[in-house]
Amino acid sequence: MTEQLKTIGVGLVGFGTVGTGVWETIQKNGQLISDRSNNQFQIKIVKAAVRDISKKRIEDAPAELFTSDWQDVVQNEEVDIVVELIGGTTTAFDIVAAALKLGKTVVTGNKALLAERGAELFALSQQHHAAIHFEAAVAGGIPIIKAVQDSYVGNEIESMVGIINGTSNYILERMTTAGLGYPEALKEAQDLGYAEADPALDVNGWDAAHKAILLASLAYGSVIDPADVYVRGIERVTSTDIAFAKNLGYNVKLLSVVVKHADGQIELRTQPSFIPKSHILSSVNGVFNAIALKGDASGDALFYGRGAGKEPTASSVVADIVDAAYTVSTGAPHRGFLPYSEHTQVKSIDETSTPYYVRFDVTDRPGVIADIAQVLANDGVGISGTHSPVDPENPDKEFVDMVFLLHTCAFGKLKATLKKVLALDSVNSEPVVFRIENL
Amino acid sequence: MTEQLKTIGVGLVGFGTVGTGVWETIQKNGQLISDRSNNQFQIKIVKAAVRDISKKRIEDAPAELFTSDWQDVVQNEEVDIVVELIGGTTTAFDIVAAALKLGKTVVTGNKALLAERGAELFALSQQHHAAIHFEAAVAGGIPIIKAVQDSYVGNEIESMVGIINGTSNYILERMTTAGLGYPEALKEAQDLGYAEADPALDVNGWDAAHKAILLASLAYGSVIDPADVYVRGIERVTSTDIAFAKNLGYNVKLLSVVVKHADGQIELRTQPSFIPKSHILSSVNGVFNAIALKGDASGDALFYGRGAGKEPTASSVVADIVDAAYTVSTGAPHRGFLPYSEHTQVKSIDETSTPYYVRFDVTDRPGVIADIAQVLANDGVGISGTHSPVDPENPDKEFVDMVFLLHTCAFGKLKATLKKVLALDSVNSEPVVFRIENL
User: Fold this and answer.
1) B145-306: CATH superfamily
2) What topology does CATH give the domain B2-140+310-330?
3) Interchain contact A65–B (C-beta under 8 A)
């Protein structure tokens, strides 16, 4: 039967870790894929662009597969689907744009490209009736894109809260369980290959933020400007705050939060947050990812799995290729995401509200707690608890860390109040603030 | 723009809880669904068959929508997609078969129908080029069908382990956390509407087993005969064993296990099992469902959410309707499941291996432990631990329950050995056996 199947040609631009994984998966499970697709087509990788064509690649890939010019892939008449795997937002943009202009379907895992330059690319997708598929861009092997786009198509998405950067999650976990400082935990992650030599996008929160932007775009139908989004990374998380969190019953996780409010505005932020140890997201350890989603019909759901790595990412790229093949093989209109809403209003971070953990560096003298508490009280910021460690063997030792747990208030209001607290003589430096998430 | 959209007509057979949920979801989010589907179509419910046409239904449904004859739905020329929501395996079969013979797409949440009579129905699906979609048949609002069918299409599925009957999960949880006996916990579940007046299919394991059969069919491409499947329910789980499990660091969960073995055979069984308290599946409480899936590329993933209920089930039915609408609106070949493999060999339950918990009802006299241990040793069944509760205030009190934790061995071998143990004078009745799952 196989010879009667329509062949869908796939071109890869980039043949590194993920590209190799895609090749291997299709070699290994190609027959299974055709079977499961009711033998409507077979997938064949017909061209792959690589930087260094002389480099030895996997055994079963023929030499004529490779080219050093991405145009050879995009322009190739046998290529129906262009898979962009080089990363970055410049050449990758040119490749994706060129493919779309030729009416070719694009599959990419490039979250930065779509989050930063999605407006241009989705416009090309619409204009040229060519889909962009991007399951691999968010949470590796977890099919969250398809879930939001297809499985929850009948739902208003009320919220999505995710741990979607494995590197940060690994570092925070090691700080929590092994008591490592941030630099040691980062070094360990790098040694294990969990963090890049340049870990900036992972630890500064932007990798997660890009993914959250894509999820929000899917859920609310418009391209979102990254400039509207609040992002803080884990670089300044200290062992001190990790230890306080543990004592108070929390874990610190780099959390991306997307919430649709009654006023139609979207809360969209990424930062290290306190979450209760008892919450299921607290159990997401190592380089795993998880996304808790709430739809108005589906109710609460959670998706958990590997957020990166060769095979899990390849699994998602292959799923996108097959998804695309159904429409490419029949000429039916594609099912890729297209924006349908002019604009999604992102709520100002100052107007978003949670409870907070605030740690002050203070000089321990009579009145310090009263002074801070009074400033908070004057501004109507409620205190749910206070905490300062006492050495049982030396109860008269002066404390330097004074922790206040504060009731829910707007972030802008909190900042204004903390400015007044900082003016107190006994408060020595900018307080450290973490959100306590209401999950 | 709306008036230019192609209308896809949907007919419901059954307008109870889920049918009402489908109606409400499409009324509420219909525009959103069209937007998200790139305005390729709009969904309209054009006919609904009900048992009692005189019964007052929801306000905004016009009287002419309803009929008491399901043929009015299936034969209706405006109906492109027939949604079967009446349950059962007789009339439901006739309805689904009639729709398929007319080349109409079927959406159903009827796990019993597909697990018991799938061979006939999928043959009709193939013959008449009409898809059967059944996301709602497994795990309510969790999109596990689409995940297995589409998102993991490039993966060999190595295993799926799930808590997929909310009623049983609720009862076992209440026995565990509130110390209730089985009858009290069942009564509570019935009072809360979590269990039917006739809870047989839920508590005897067959509801979960039907779902596991469907998951295995999807993953391995053939219809599976329910007669090949091992199923035990929770009716005989006692407070005694729940208490032992807790003390030993386990929770008892009704677990459906699907494993592909190296010999190509599929292990497929449903029973109450011990799982470590630390495993993420142990945190799945109440009426929630979860499925842990392992693919050869994706690695470990977990899907969690509401397993039943009006809105979650409606969410999945609507997702299927929209999925079907893409192909129905273009005439492209459908993407519904079709078997592609002649036969899936289900491994004999006697050849499946796990560690075990075995509780003996014994007469406490010198030699009883030695006697049992000797029988086990003679047969080469390893003991990993023993446990019998001692009353600290009365250490000489005779025990009646003697628990052995046994190393992994084949179930058939265990049964043969236990028969010999039962022949001992000091062993009073059939031992109680639970599998300890290696997750």
Assistant:
1) Dihydrodipicolinate Reductase; domain 2 (3.30.360.10)
2) Rossmann fold (3.40.50)
3) no
